[in-house]
Design a protein that fits this description.
The protein is of the alpha/beta class. It has ten helices and 14 strands. Helix 3 (84-92) packs parallel to helix 4 (105-113).
């Protein structure tokens, strides 16, 4: 069971002509109307054994649900999904220990400094890429055929697709890793100063996709894994590395893959939280297994262990 950081049914959006203050207020209201990333359920599973919590960046939710479904032994695992920053703060505040996966080494480092992690278990698990995306009528698009967008290319596409009153959707660039990587991309491209007042921030990467699907922005920068159906051709069950959006994202298409030189490497780190039950180690090891890694790759995550 996954506790998500956003509900697709929420329809509160600022008007396209709203001021930056209105955008910020609406974003805050959306954030605080969402369920917080904590386990509101019982402390034990139906069989009486303690629930093991897996705290994971929101961008991992669907892939982890698929990974956990592979092993009946992990039926007791409770998946707690939210922005990496939200999860780190909850663990700092004393949330029940378990396994933590962060989309940013910074938040993992913060918990390490505060003595909340078994430091010898802190390791890189997965990688990801950034996509420039836009609302559009979509057909299946080959991810392998997408162009690599460098700084000048990004500026050109923003000029092409961003209207005079349009907005650029990012995850919150002050706290959420996806937004931090996107802001770094814009800074290195020399575009941040001219665009910062036109940003519509999402509480996490998935909320950014939700905004885009509802036409709140002309463009967005998201993880490639935030558009369902993106997969690599070497993953089992993939269809020649194609993008096939599901219902909620059916009006979003990728414009191009953002050059990795424009931001720090996107690495998901994993660690066991101090005080976690013994089952945490079994789950931790399983997530590095070839079977689990193949599932992650089928959702578009990058294998960083080759």
């Amino acid at each position: 069971m996954a506790i998500r950081d956003a509900k697709a049914g929420n329809s509160t959006l600022p008007a396209l002509g709203a001021s930056p203050l209105a955008v910020a207020v609406c974003a805050a209201l959306l954030f605080f109307s969402m369920p917080i990333a904590c386990d509101a359920g019982s402390q034990a599973s139906a069989g009486g054994s303690p629930k093991l919590r897996l705290y994971a960046a929101a961008s991992l939710t669907q892939s982890l649900e698929a990974v956990l479904a592979q092993q009946q032994a992990f039926e007791h695992v409770r998946l707690v999904s939210a922005a990496s920053s939200t999860l780190a703060r909850q663990l700092e505040a004393g949330a029940p220990p378990g396994v933590y996966i962060s989309a940013s080494p910074d938040w993992m480092g913060r918990l390490t400094q505060r003595g909340r992690l078994q430091t010898d278990t802190r390791k890189a698990l997965l990688g990801n890429r950034l996509l420039l995306v836009r609302p559009t009528d979509v057909r299946r698009v080959s991810i392998d055929a997408l162009p690599e967008i460098d700084g000048p290319g990004l500026a050109s596409r923003i000029r092409q697709h961003l209207s005079d009153s349009g907005r650029l959707c990012l995850a919150d660039p002050d706290h959420v890793p996806a937004g931090v990587y996107a802001r770094t991309t814009l800074l290195r491209s020399g575009l941040w100063a001219g665009l910062r007042e036109r940003i519509l921030p999402g509480a996490d990467a998935r909320r950014t996709v939700w905004y885009l699907a509802r036409g709140a922005c002309d463009l967005g920068i998201v993880y490639q894994t935030d558009l369902p159906g993106i997969s690599k051709s070497n993953a089992p069950g993939s269809d020649s590395s194609r993008f096939a959006p599901r219902a909620a994202e059916s009006s979003i298409a990728p414009v191009g893959l953002i050059d990795t030189a424009l931001h720090d490497a996107i690495v998901y780190e994993i660690a066991i939280v101090r005080g976690a039950p013994p089952a945490a180690r079994e789950l931790y090891d399983f997530l590095f297994s070839p079977g689990a890694q193949r599932v992650f790759q089928s959702f578009g995550f990058v294998d960083i262990h080759r």
